[in-house]
Model the fold of this input.
Amino acid sequence: MGGQTGFGPVPVEADGGPPFAADWEARVYALAAVLRRRGLFNSDELRDAIERLPPEVYLGASYYERWLGAIETLVAEKGVP
Amino acid sequence: MTYPVGSRVRVRAGDPDHHTRMPRYVRGHTGEVVAVLERWPLPDDSARGLPPRVETCYAVRFGAADLWGRGDHTVTVDLWESYLDRP
Amino acid sequence: MTGHDDLPTAARARRLEERLIAAGLTSDDEIDEFLTKLYGSASPVNGARMAARAWTDPAYRELLLSDGNAAAAELGFGGLSYQLRVVANTDRTHNVIVCTLCSCYPVSLLGPSPGWYKSFAYRSRTVREPRSVLAEFGVSLPDTVQVSVWDSTSEARYMVLPMRPAGTGALGADQLAALVTRNGLIGTAQV
Done:
């Protein structure tokens, strides 16, 4: 989304806070890493799955909510029971 | 390599319907190679589960005035070889 | 979103974990170990040490700017999963790093990325109007300094080598490293 307009000021005021706003965010980050390591999907498939989220989900979800949605997509597509 | 440092290169136009790491804002624009990077699997292939082509990446510099019509800064973007053509 | 608002998402995340654990694809121990290791090893202190060393050792500076991975290895940060490219600020050029496509970032050398780096605002505006973005961080550069934006679109990860502040000639390595902030290594602060 380089150059796309309309996103307003950068949320600098949150700078200095923890990198993960909640435990589940850190665990989603970790989950993505361990599943990549396990070979369930690669980084490009993860980014692609994030990009394939419906636009209203993509724009309305927080950063790690998008990761969560993408992992859910891949887990379903890869046939995990 | 195909594009040594200093080469002018043009980013392909087009809008693939698959995942790509070619940002929209540089498509069709011409820039200068400022560094030759390592060779990596093409994300366009990896994202689709295809055996990926492995290609050299290039750090390509663009002028803000060219990209946005204003600004005096530069933007350098890393691009896989198949994203590029000679101008 | 924090606190109560997170409960539905937290529950959703936990359900996903349980499904994957039941399928034998991960375990609570594996997730916990990953996070323990992340918090223990990935930190901006790492990048700061590299910058401080480059300030005092010209040969190291040259290595850092020509082969970031070798320079990282020399300080004990070998085996990086990315090609490290370090770009130096000068009195004529100020560098700033972004990933417009997602939020790629040299986590092992800077720690997990800050929320603002991942925001739509930062990702969209930094390539288009970097001075305006920098102003929001309280950074104002003279017209004589050109801004060079680096968009991390490949497997390379970028880090800025800030300029050494004036008047620091007497400081030792640890004191110099303490001056190098994470935002200084991204380019959204001057050091």
In short: The mean pLDDT of chain A is 94. Chain A touches chain C through 43 residues (CB under 8 Å). Chain A has four helices and no strands. The first helix of chain A runs from residue 23 to 38.
